[in-house]
Amino acid sequence: MQVGLVAADGGLLTSPCTPAPAERAVAKGLANHVVADPLACAKRIAGLPRQAAESTERLCDRRG
Fold first, then answer.
1. Which member of 2, 7, 32, 57 has the greatest number of CB atoms within 10 A?
2. Whole-angstrom Cα distance, residue 42 to residue 35?
3. DSSP 8-state class, residue 11
4. How far is CA 55 from each of CA 1, 28, 61, rounded to the nearest angstrom?
5. Is there a contact between 7 and 1 (Cβ–Cβ < 8 Å)?
């Protein structure tokens, strides 16, 4: 998404299951890492190309 591309073709994974604590999700292979500073992560995402971020969000809504 940093270059304006939409996450697709296996680049995006969602799960309909009940959310688990972050560390447990990583241990089970449902996530690849835990974000130490969620606010900093959100600010970084907010700085990404808007159209790519919106398109990726739409894909999340369809697959989830």
1. 7
2. 10
3. S
4. 10, 28, 10
5. yes
